[in-house]
Amino acid sequence: MSNDPAAELPFYYGCISRTEAEQQLKLAGMVDGLFLLRQCIRSLGGYVLSIVFNLEFHHYSIEKQLNGTYCIIGGKPHCGPAELCEFYSKDPDGLVCLLRKPCLRSPDTPIRTGAFDNMKDNMLRDYVRQTWNLEGEAMEQAIITQASQLEKLIATTAHEKMPWYHGKIPRQEGERRLYSGAQPDGKFLVRDRDEPGTFALSMMYGKTVYHYRILQDKSGKYSMPEGTKFDTIWQLVEYLKMKPDGLVAVLGEACVHGKAAEKTPSLPATRRAGTNGYTPPPRAVGAVGGASMPVTTVPDTEADFNPYHNPNEVKKFNIQRSQLLIDEVELGSGNFGSVKKGVLKTDSGQIDVAIKVLKSENEMLVKEEMMREAEIMHQLSNRYIVQMLGLCNAENLMLVMEMASAGPLNKFLSTNKDTVAVENIVTLMHQVSMGMKYLEEKNFVHRDLAARNVLLVNQTFAKISDFGLSKALAADHNYYKARTAGKWPLKWYAPECIHFHKFSSKSDVWSYGVTMWEAFSYGGKPYKKMKGPEVMRFIDSGERMQCPPACPEEIYTLMKECWTYKHEERPDFKKVEASMRSYISSKADKDKPEGAAAADEPVK
């Protein structure tokens, strides 16, 4: 542990579970601002900051960046864990409170080392010796200067050195080894599957062997079906020793492979989720063989937490299936599934709702995205943003939202061209600017603002919806950089989004300009029949869409300001909303009879 920068901190506990961290904090008195630091099982080289506030526990992931700095997701980077904790003792910067009192390790409590900690020094030396042919002082120097990159490199194959890894053996042989000797619940092994680069987890429970396929996504992360994702196989295994995450029980004793037992240093005793272990509910057990997996609820993991809200609130937005009445009327559909009309039964009566229903065949691919959207919507509370009411995990995962019964702005305007006045559209777009100003103040980037995602409660009341692409920004970062392009709505995107994958509130301003154009065109399609590359050339050459026939000149001027090529010269939503308000106010003054008093307040 000597190369762990947190090893000298008296409030650092090493590789302990969340449950154990909370137990330590309870024993230390549960005062506001009481905190400790522990190793993060999910992120290589990372930590978790566990804090008490208002008699509740809050856990924040600290990730080690490629440049060697450490930061809480959405927070400022710091050169080490000690410096990070010192900073948060003076400035909460998004945490629930200041770090006020360290929860100190008792003298007889050593720092808990993890499975990888116990072997990485030897693995590093073996790698440098074999790959670079270095020994002695040269080897030590290479390890010091390249430690961070080397650790990530060897961590991906560290499972091969673990006692529970049995390599390429058939399923039947895995069962034979598990049945050999004692057969306690949780006894397990990991083996290669026939398909190269894929793995299976086999475990004993109730004298029966269950087989689980370990999934790997496109980015290379490993998980159980619908479970938490990890960089490596061994991290996943260590996590499953603490939480079942879809298995019939937590992992217990390793079924030790002969060669591994000779090579591998002894590992710490298995940790269970509670003092009595884990007792699976009757419906948790799925069919053996990988075709049908155990049903699991959404895991409560460190990956779910961020500094923008109280993580304990997540537990409050679960809606029971018995509270929902779902109509077969479909309000819309997309890749994720469909949006249906419904009724939510509450103690105070019944509420009309819109229910986003996940397609069962898409569940593996889209559930994580939908959960992220729910997390974001749960944090937002504004009159001009569609409010999320809760999640229901029943026959499908369902996102329950407040109803905006008049539907999307573009469809409403295209079918009501003769009855909606321009002044009405100005009011609706002003409401959208107020909602976007709120998002800007909250450091959220929408990334998909378009007339199709502005829903109408009625002809004069608009709400922003669809937060599937949204991201929370750090308070000191003004943009988010997407890793991949994916299926992007390019006609609504600013040049920096298209060329550099950079998203910010300023790029949302560009999208707002396009949304305005759609609205004042009564649901017209932007850039006519141009394809994506043509739109990019059109914008880069300095061209912009023409003023829609019904659009007031002052509004078109604002629209063009939203389409300023350089994002640093583009107005923010504070200015855009003020311009809309000013236009409405001046229009109201002009329309008054001569001699009437000026408006006391802007229209809201």
Alpha-carbon Rg, integer = 28 Å
Total beta strand runs: 21
Structural class comes to: alpha+beta
| Average of the residue pLDDT scores | 79
Explain what the structure shows:
With 604 residues, this protein is of the alpha+beta class. Helix content is 30%, strand content 19%. It contains 15 helices and 21 strands. It has helices at residues 18-27, 81-88, 117-132, 136-155, 171-179, 233-240, 258-263, 363-379, 409-415, 422-441, 495-500, 505-520, 532-540, 553-562, 573-591, and strands at residues 34-39, 47-53, 56-64, 70-72, 101-102, 188-192, 199-205, 208-216, 222-223, 324-334, 337-346, 349-358, 388-393, 397-402, 407-408, 444-445, 454-458, 461-464, 471-472, 480-481, 502-503. The protein has a five-stranded mixed β-sheet with strand order 4-3-2-1-5, with helices on one face. The protein has a five-stranded antiparallel β-sheet with strand order 10-11-12-14-13. A four-stranded antiparallel β-sheet has the order 6-7-8-9. Strand 6 and strand 7 (199-205) form a beta hairpin. Helix 3 (117-132) crosses helix 4 (136-155), helix 10 (422-441) runs antiparallel to helix 12 and helix 12 (505-520) runs antiparallel to helix 14 (553-562). The protein is globular, with a radius of gyration of 28 Å. Residues 260-316 and 593-604 have low confidence and may be disordered.
Q: What are the key terms here?
A:
5-stranded mixed β-sheet; alpha+beta; 604 residues; 5-stranded antiparallel β-sheet; 15 helices; disordered C terminus
